[in-house]
Amino acid sequence: MGAYILRRLLLIIPTLIGIMLVNFTLTQFVPGGPIEQIAAQLQGQGDAFSNISGGGAEAGGGAIEESYQGARGLPPEFIAQLEREFGFDRPPVERFLNMLWNYLRFDFGTSWFRSISVIDLVLEKMPVSITLGLWSTLLAYLISIPLGIRKAVRDGSRFDTWSSGVIIMGYAIPAFLFAVLLMVLFAGGSFWKIFPLRGLTSDNFADLSTWGKIKDYAWHATLPVVASTISSFATLTLLTKNSFLDEINKQYVITARAKGLAERRVLYGHVFRNAMLIVIAGFPAMFLGVFFGASILIETIFSLDGLGRLGFEAAVQRDYPVIFGTLYVFGLMSLVVGILSDMMYVFVDPRIDFEKRAG
């Protein structure tokens, strides 16, 4: 297992380089780069030259044309100055290599439009994404696995039928619509005001005791976490049920029952280990999906300032240091979580040997 993990770790480097190269290349052809963004702002604000702050970062791209759309009427010297500050006066290959060298040292530069380092910006938004990703995933697993097992054991019963209807209905409801429904019902809409409407903490959070902070955090996180869980909960429940049904009908289960083993021993001593493999395989995708991408609308509805909104706003503004910095961090985390998933395979079923498979 050690040799397999080492090979996977070594593959992280070329994989990250490939991801960054593809996205860096794409940005060279995307219209409306940061210089055009600034030019448009300047022309819309009139005399706004004093609002430009230098922040030459090596990361970034953007199609550099001889005449920027929206830059007509601005002095050519000013446009040339912006190119130097953003590093666009250098060849794309040189900018890409400088970006990789900086990123290998975890130097992601400074946001072009926020005047704050990218790493500080990510750390500032991280608590919201951790809340949505971690607790939503744990909640989905804690509910879906027991429910899926029960549905498999009672397959075809009335319980299985009506619970499947509820699950499918939950899967069909978009997360943002469910979030609005929760706000209307429980956040002071038209019914009860049980949970707060926005934010992860109260204004007096710093003055609370340790237990008070925990309760306040849980109080604020309940609605967004539940809203983020709804779709993954439905998928995971049906996946668990189908996985257990597939294992229950196999010969080794029939043999175990014929030997007189208790049903609970058969399910949790034999079936569980094999059935959980496919469920564990979906853990990284579920966690990263909620953590990185699926929370943009949830964050907007509950006024949470997390990585989802950060990535969206950076893409709109063409803030390339933020885009590439977060992409690098997210890609690295995805690859590491993939390795952890393989380790969980071995933990659940020690018979799996990735080194022999690789050989």
Automatic annotation (TrEMBL):
It is a multi-pass membrane protein. The keyword tRNA processing does not apply. It is found in: Cell inner membrane; Cell membrane. Residues 126-345 form the ABC transmembrane type-1 domain. GO terms for biological process: microcin transport; transmembrane transport. Signal peptide: none annotated. Its main location: membrane. NCBIfam families: PRK15133.1. This is Microcin C ABC transporter permease YejB. The lineage of its organism: Bacteria, Pseudomonadati, Pseudomonadota, Alphaproteobacteria, Rhodobacterales.
